[in-house]
Every structure is written in C-alpha cells, then in structure tokens.
Structure prediction request, 611 residues.
Amino acid sequence: MTDSTLPTCRFQSFSEPSDPAHVAGRVAALRKALAAQGLAGFVVPRADEHQGEYVPAHMARLAWLTGFTGSAGHAVVLADKAALIVDGRYTIQSAAQTDTSVVTPVRMEETPLERWIEQNLPAGGELGYDPWLHTVDGVARLEKAAAAAGGKAVPLAPNPIDALWADRPAPPAAPVKAHRTDYAGEDTAAKLGRVRDALAEAKVDALVVSDPHALAWLFNVRGGDVEHTPLPLGYAIVPREGRPTVFLASEKITNEAGDAIGAVGEIAAPAALGQELKRLGAAKAKVRLDGATGASALATLIRDAGGTADAGADPIALMKARKNAAELAGTRAAHLRDGAAMTNYLSWLAREAPKGGLTEIDAVAALEQERLRTGLLKDVSFTTIAGAGPNAALPHYRVTESSNRRLEPGIFLVDSGAQYEDGTTDITRTIVIGEPTDEMRDRYTRVLKGHVAISRLVFAKGTSGAQLDAFARLPLWQGGFDFDHGTGHGVGSYLSVHEGPQRLSKLGTTPLEPGMILSNEPGYYKQGHYGIRIENLIVVEERAIPGAERVIYGFETITWCPYERALIEKSLLDPGEIAWIDAYHASVLEKIGPQVEGDARAWLETACQPL
Prediction:
C-alpha cells in the first residue's frame, strides 16, 4: 500500500455529523409544541427503547434536536432555557456541535441531570418525558427531581419530536441471521435452561429481554440494525415454564434463523409485545425487567394490567459476560488475525507517515483495508479514533472532513477494533512521528506502567473493577496527572465492544469472574497538544498459587501488537516491568511473526527487541 493507492472506507464515513445552524429552529418548534400541551419542558435522552450504545438513525432525537452526536447525554428544553448535559468526555465536542446561544452545554460531573431539573424547572411546571426512552429507575429519578422543584414529571405519547422531524429516517430492517453454535459454544436450549433456573431462583414468572445484546446471545442470532454491532433490535419474553416468544419483524428473519428460533420458541410481530405484557399482567404474573435497559413503558403495561413489574438484574448479562471455552478460543483467534493486520498497518505507517503526505482519514482508511485483507472482517467494532497532535487529546475524537489533520512530527493515536464472527477486537496504540520530547516519553511511560500494572495483577475472588482501577492510575498520580475515563470496559463475543456489567472503573462494582473480557487502556491527555492511550484486551482467569488460601484470579492478555519503543523511557521502569514488556514482545514476535512478511516482518523484529 502506498500513499497514492489509499483506499476508501466501507464501514465508516467522514461527513459532518451535525449542523449547529439547525438547532435554534428545532428548539423553537419543540417549545411551541410543548406550550400547546401546557408543558413546562421536555427531557430528550440520547437513547432508544433499548438503551443501546448505538441508536439507529430514526431514534437519534438528541442529535436531531441539538446537533450533539456523542454516545451519552441528555437535553432538557424549558420555555426560557435549554441545557445539554454531558460527561467530561464530551465537554469540547458538545460546545462545538450545538448552538450555544440556544443550548447551554453542562458538565454532568458538576451538575447532574436531576440537579439541573431541581434548579431550573419552574414551580408547578410539568416536565414531559418519553417512557420508552427511560428506565424504571430513570423515571423515578426524574419524578423525584421534578417534585423537588415543585413540579411534576409526566409521560408523553407520542414523542413530540417525531411530529417535527420531517425527514426522519425509516426504522432499520437488516436481516437476522443464525450465529454458528461452534462460535457460540452453547445452544439456545441449554441457555434457556439456565435462564429458567435463574428465574426460579429469583421467584419471578417471566423475564422481558429488552437488551438486544441479550436477545442475540440467548437465541444465537446476529443482526445489523445499528452501527458496528451485529444486533437485531427486538424483544423476547421468557416464561419460567413454557416456550419463549421473540418479537421481531418476520421480514427481517432469515430462514435459518427462523428455523433455529422456531425450534425452541415462538416468533411474533413487535406490535404484539404490548398485548403479551398485558396478558401476563392480567394473570397476576411477577415479571422481571432489566433495570439497566427495561423501559418504564414496559413496567406500566404490566402494572396497569394487574401484574408486578420487578425491575432488577437481567440474569443473561452475567451469563453473557462469562465467556465459554469456544468463545474464548474464537476471540484468541480473532486477536491473532487482528494482530497481524495491525502489524502490517503500523509498519506501513512507520514508512509513510514521516514523508508528510498522510492525513487522519488516510490512516483510518488504510487500517480498515488491512483488516479487510483478512477476508473475514464483518465490520469495524466502533468508529476508528485516529488523532494527530491536539486531536489525540480528545479521547472520543471522530475525524471528519473538516477536522482532518495531516500526520506531522509528534504524537499519533489510533484506537480501533474489528468485528469477526469468532470475536470482537479493540486495540489502541500511540506512536510518534519523528523525535519525541522528553515530556512525551515521560507521559507515555507512565501510561505504560499503569497498563503493565493491570496486566500483572493478581486478586482474590470477589474483587471488582473499582478495586483495581487505581493500579492503572498510580504512575500518573505520582507525577500529578490522571485521565477522566475508566481504565477498561467489558467486551462481547461478536457483539458489543462495550459490554457490561464488568468494567475496570471507579464505577465497576460487579465482581470479576473467569471468562470475562475487559480492556486495559489507561491514558494521558494534554488538551490542545497531544494524547496518549495504550490498550490491550485481557481475560480474567484463575491462577494456581502454591499454598494459596483463597481463590486467586489474574489476567490473560490476548492482544498482540508492539508498544512504541521510541516513547519508552526505560529509566522510569523497574526490573519487573521491563521483564514483562520484554516477555510480551517476545510473545508478539512468536505469535504474529509467522503471519507477516517482508517490510512488516522486519519492522516487527525491530519493534520486539528486548528493552
């Protein structure tokens, strides 16, 4: 691949995601509609009915209204003011994408959604919300906040934005396909048996499967209704006794997937979901809803019919998080394949970037092309983050035609991943073009030290990610630095690259268990200058320690790609860290070396030399 033969992207685009010029008119139209209903305001979450990370285009109401395209946030529109409440990842992006003369960006860490409502909703005012876009707990928080302001939260149907959105896209209709059992490692009948056992233990009569990830996992199907994650958007109801019902549009279901679902359950149209919930309610059933994804509207349908809506943990979430032997074998194979693609890419980048002709878009397209050359790529697992210079300091940067920078001497960060049928990958590498500064080497090495610390950890059974997160931060803290995102997230098996409930984060309260896949990605960001992040995927595994009195776990690293030697300040590393890095590089060369040749093989041998 040369500068003159750079490909285009199949799975990503670089068009501008929003236009702030539309914001004023759309907010004004919404205010007029709210006033006609006697409402003081309306809450617009960045959510669909399933609370998914990616929302289909026809559900992107927050982006349509405010211009903001980040993965999390809320807008609250009142008659005289409007707020766009986002977390620290999106402080810069939110201000750039919306019309700040109409909508005020607010940092969630300083003023959470509920507090803003308490402080700004007028006394006696009614605050509208769409009950399909908020969970049971979320609605309870809205009601509490509105009451504290002397007002009231009221459900609205239909969503008032939908009548204003003249060119609203059609709902997605991607085919639903069967997922091979040799990749899944367990058939649907066995999974259903485990779910029914969990329902019996919880003393509930049925489970509403509202998370499409859980639906895909349970019935061994995959779809394509959202970007970069092979999800079929739909629901299922699993009774404690009897056959489950899957609610999916029949025209989306392939014959193979239909046969597989039909062998264990029924298939019904999505419109039939409400009637089935009412039937359960009329039978006085106790129905479990996923507290994380179950819409408040689901609970209302059950309760109004006389049943009990039990909002709590969906038992599928933990089952899905603990990967079985087949899933782990698949993800290891996917990472070996992906490691070779990354090696080919980084060796090409090392040759081409110093010439000065590449841009961030060129770099994204070239990496996607390397993964396509495997012949097995189904999609990227998320939009590639490829940041040069100051753009690397934006943890969730997305390059567009207007933001596109040339790769010049300094830092270049690329965070990317792939969807293969046997596994999902996610890797970040930070490289330097030309000579790094002493400061860059210091910061990179501190990030690397935290990354290595997580990789080497051992911990007792029952330990959560919140208890481990600080190990990644300590080398940065010692220099007076930190990063604002979590150290790691869970990862699915040909599912979402961001999977719960496991995480390495201050918020990660779920105990880590064998088979869980997580990312290990500490970082450092100097706003306006450069950013650094290093990421591998790791798997929780049991460790045999002679004389141990407790069950002890550790992490198996499954990502294979060299670190940036030119940014490593060896004097900051202790002997144990050096030994771990050298051993890791030796394994990279052993595993990836046979898959690459020519310039890539020569580059890899140099990159993997002992420190």
